[in-house]
Amino acid sequence: MALGGSGSERGPGRVVAIGGAERSRAGGDAILRRFVELSGGAAGRVVVVATASSEPDVVEANYLGLLTAMGAGQVRALRLETRDQANADDAVQALIEATGVFFTGGDQARVAEMLRGTRVDSVLHTRLGTGELTLAGTSAGAAMMSGTMIIDGGREGGIAARSVRIAAGLQFLPGVLIDMHFAERGRLDRLLSAVALYPHALGLGIDEDTAIVAEGSRFEVIGTGGVTVIDGGCATTIRTAEYDGKPPAMLGVCLHVMPAGYSFDLDGRRPLVATSPGKHREVM
User: Fold this and answer.
1) How far apart are the C-alpha atoms of 144 and 151, rounded to whole Å?
2) So where's the catalytic machinery, residue-wise (predicted)?
3) Which domains does the chain carry?
4) What pLDDT sits at residue 247?
5) What pLDDT does 3 receive?
């Protein structure tokens, strides 16, 4: 079964996917400051979308204050709690004018259900495609960026396809499958289970206070934790047909763990290490 959102190609716009709790450790402001910088800094116009949250008033106020304190020129909240709101002229205009959009945490399935196929969904993809926008999301706001999206599962432990619930994401990062709070909540089993079902998707497990900054066909790792990459495409064997509560067969799967300073080539599916500012070499 093919799952996908409204886009299928990576554009030149920048995407910042955060593993959650981005201010939980010393120096944690660096991720949000990077987002503000990429969004234009003092000249930027940032929109905060708390669709995923069950407490939007609290979450909006928190991020409005944080992003303003970090130097964003204009910061406003945009309520998208119904599909009618996500098709409204004022919402579309707000996103046409924005240089940065930040999706908060909460429930990634709710974000996808509210936005998929709407005018808001379309304008976000269009502006990413032209390189006019920086799009960021934390926790659920990162998970929904995947083409194929994990929405639940893995609590019982072990690698098993039936333990993971999958849905179509919004395709801001097509070809990947993002899991968040990765090391902190022990989600390696969950991501392996998802990749067993969808080996064409590159599994990305992002730790808390850690992010990937993706532009074009490459992403870099920033923050205090790491990013785990699971590539089922290089496996010699992946068998899930004989599931019956048993783990899948996964042989030769590639796994990389990358801290800040490393990058990844999404087209070539290979990790890179920085040798100097703006220059990278393939990790042998």
Assistant:
1) 9
2) 139, 181, 208
3) 14-158+165-174+207-224 (3.40.50.880)
4) 81
5) 38
Distances (CA, A) of 97 to 12, 45, 47, 124, 153: 18, 7, 9, 11, 38
Q: In what order do the strands lie in the sheet with 134-138?
A: 74-77, 45-49, 100-103, 134-138, 14-18, 210-215, 218-223, 262-265, 270-276, 279-282
* Total-model pTM: 0.93
Is 139 an active-site residue? yes
The reply to whether 53 belongs to the active site is no
Identify the active-site residue in 6, 39, 139, 263: 139
- Catalytic one among 208, 220, 263, 280? 208
Is there a catalytic annotation at residue 122?
Answer: no
Look at residues 248, 232, 220, 72 and name the one whose alpha carbon lies nearest to residue 160: 248
Q: What share of the chain is helix, strand, coil (3-state, %, to 5)?
A: 25, 30, 40
Note the pLDDT of residue 136.
99
Q: Return the closest-CA partner of residue 117 out of 5, 8, 1.
A: 5
Give the mean pLDDT per block of 10 residues along the chain (284 residues). Answer: 47 92 79 97 98 98 96 98 99 99 98 98 98 98 96 78 88 97 95 93 98 97 97 90 72 97 96 75 69
The one catalytic residue in 22, 39, 181, 280 is 181
The reported pLDDT for the residue numbered 1 is 31
Find, among 235, 225, 219, 221, the residue nearest to 268 by Cα.
219
Instruction: Tally the residues of the chain.
Output: 284
Token pair, residue 249, equals: 């067969």
Q: What is the pLDDT of residue 26?
A: 65
| H helical segments located in the chain | 29-38, 56-69, 89-97, 108-115, 119-129, 140-143, 188-197
